[in-house]
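This is your field. Have a critical look at the following sequence-structure pair:

***
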Amino acid sequence: MDRLGSEELQTVLVLDGGVSAPTGGLVNGSNVRLIALDFSPRGTETPTEWGGRLGFEPSELAVVTTDARSVDSFDAEMIQQVRSPADLTGIGVEATKLLDTWGEETAATPCVVLDSLTVLFQYAQLQPLYQFLHALTTRIANVGGYGIAFLDPMTQDQQTVRSIASLFDATAERTDGDDWQIRPR
């Protein structure tokens, strides 16, 4: 399986309605700081829970979520809240602050996980979401980080999925059971 962390693959769009990423892990290295843009109702709240979902346990966790979620439920070094998942500008500002802070330090690599695009599509149309993701993936690349975003492809038409996928270095799709296919762009 291809992994993130090579020059070619820094960002991946996970196309699956489930909650996990490919079990082999997408990120190389053990010293990864996770920036979770977490808008999913299921809430992955600790580094250990993220480790179970992503195949690596982050060394540190920062969360950007809505003010409807209790900050007490997260086991994270930093928690930033925005008014709503519709506040793409606020989400982008908070993610950029965290990337700037953690991207400057060479000892650890920042990894942004967006959980999930399926939720954001309930609050935003394709064009503003595309612009938000373009800015975010560009910023991730500029700091040498990783990016993983989740989207249930059954919730959008194929043209929308292709448009969003064009912003990522690869897509990951579950084929049979626990098998995954990673397709570089």
About this structure: The mean pLDDT is 86. Helices lie at 47-54, 88-103, 117-120, 126-142, 158-165. Residues 11-109+121-153+163-184 form one domain. The chain has one domain: 11-109+121-153+163-184.
